[in-house]
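User: Last request for today: this protein with copper (II) ion, please.
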Amino acid sequence: MSRMVSTVLAAASMLALAACSGKPAADAALSATAAPAPLPATVDFGPPQGAPVHAVLTSPPNVPPPIHRNYPAKVIVELEVIEKEMPISEGVTYTYWTFGGTVPGSFIRVRQGDTVEFHLKNNPGNKMPHNIDLHGVTGPGGGAASSFTAPGHESQFTFKALNQGVYVYHCATAPVGMHIANGMYGLILVEPPEGMPKVDHEYYVMQGDFYTTGKYREKGHQPFDMDKAIDEKPTYVLFNGHEGALTGDKALTARVGETVRLFVGNGGPNLVSSFHVIGEIFDTVRQEGGTVEQHNVQTTLIPSGGAAMVEFRTQVPGSYVLVDHSIFRAFNKGAMAILKVSGPEDKSIYSGKEVDSVYLGDRAGPNLHAVSTAAKANAAGTLSKDDQVAAGRQLFTGTCSVCHQANGEGLPGVFPPLAKSSLIAQLIKEDRNRLIGIPVHGLTGKVTVNGTEYDSVMPPMTQLTDDEVANLLTYVLNSWGNPGGQVTKDEVAKVRAQPAPAAATEH
Ligand SMILES: [Cu+2]
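Assistant: Here's the final one, the structure of the complex with copper (II) ion:
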């Protein structure tokens, strides 16, 4: 890091000197760039030396250890493509195509000047042919043409890592967009010859957009939706391929006072990421994975098929939320991860409390286990009221609790109570569909709850699926002194299909 800084400073002072000598600015810039650089970006360090080395590959969010080698070697990389079904969200599965069994694929780390002997295997159980295009390769297709591999086969090609930086790799088999959308991307780090400055933690985080036929969090197995992908309308935008891959008990961790380096990639296939960590300022960013260092950055743009290196020192304990600051993607499509920093507080830097449900929503809890349990029971036809109540309780946080409060008491004069609500008791007996319609269609106009009149607006919760609404209402009905009962997914579907009732005028 310090070498980079001094190179940049040296170049800047040369510019300043040249400018003082009275030359025109353009000339000065030219002579500055024409000066022999101490270490050009592209270097051939000569033939590989020593015995061949097998590259250590890691699954996200882990990064292979630093290389600590002072000569170029022949490095053997063996990567296997595996097509497999995995959860994309709680109770939702998706058929991923992976490099090494994970999304993003295995992290590869080599040293600038290394000669990489790349072996790409296509698992015999797979159905599709695949290949690999590494952005760190100099040569046509980045390896794609040399690595086309049918299921049950292996291909091999060799390249020299001429440029340092962090690079995306991805599958480039037609239809390319579909292979990438199914999770076929990862990162390769080409370390500078002198290595990277030492930090306490290195993590591997990669964003990707996903396209399923069902809506966000719609339960069951969800196939890829080519039309949504072409229209660039993702159902999910995720860090590390799965909703919750880096939240709850899977959050990234650090201690107060430690340095963290994130290798953040964006596989796309379509979206550009506005990468931001809520409550942190990046001390250093190597934008686009290149060699220029930028400092004091709030949000860094990561193009599709690009990557960045982001560094900061932690100072205050608590949960830091990694998001794509195109913020609907974070709260309504899943683009959220957490860095949990533990250690002593420093009230001189920050006095406040831990980030709560405002940012974390239903991710504030350790996991959404009850939601997936309910989804499984639903699929098996064994869904019980208890399953629904447990799932509804987890979903209530961050969905309804922002207004009606975690204890259902509401806010006097602003949000009516759901606890012991006279309106809920009345509707569940006399007009079930109208009650079910409240979260689905919203509620406007005068309502009286427990003797107090409200004339406000509850927006429709159209982001919720039918079973989420059913679970939320079942939870509300069975909590805080309400009369009990159960609402089914099918009932919600019927109410959703009907037009919203006109604003109520009675009560
Ligand atoms: Cu592929």
